[in-house]
Design a protein that fits this description.
two-stranded antiparallel ribbon; mainly alpha; YggX-like
Amino acid sequence: MARMVQCVKLGREAEGLEKAPWPGELGRRVFESVSREAWALWLEEAKKLINETRLNPTTPEGQRLYADAMERYFFGPEPADAPLRIL
C-alpha cells in the first residue's frame, strides 16, 4: 500500500514520495507533506527555472537558490500559482 500524505500543494490527500528528494530539513518537510503528483509539478517548474535563469544547480550558490525556490513553491506564503523567481 502506498504511503499517503496531506499534500500542501494540492490541498488533498495523495500518494507520497518514496524517499526524501532533498537533503536536510527541507527534504524531510517535502517528504512528509508533498505528494508524488505535486513533486512532478515542481520538477517541471524547476526545469523552467533552471533554463530561464541559467541557474547552475551543481554549484553551492545554485543549490541554495534552487532550495530557496523549492521551499517557496511548496511552503511559501505566495499563492500556489504564483510564478517562481530566483530573488
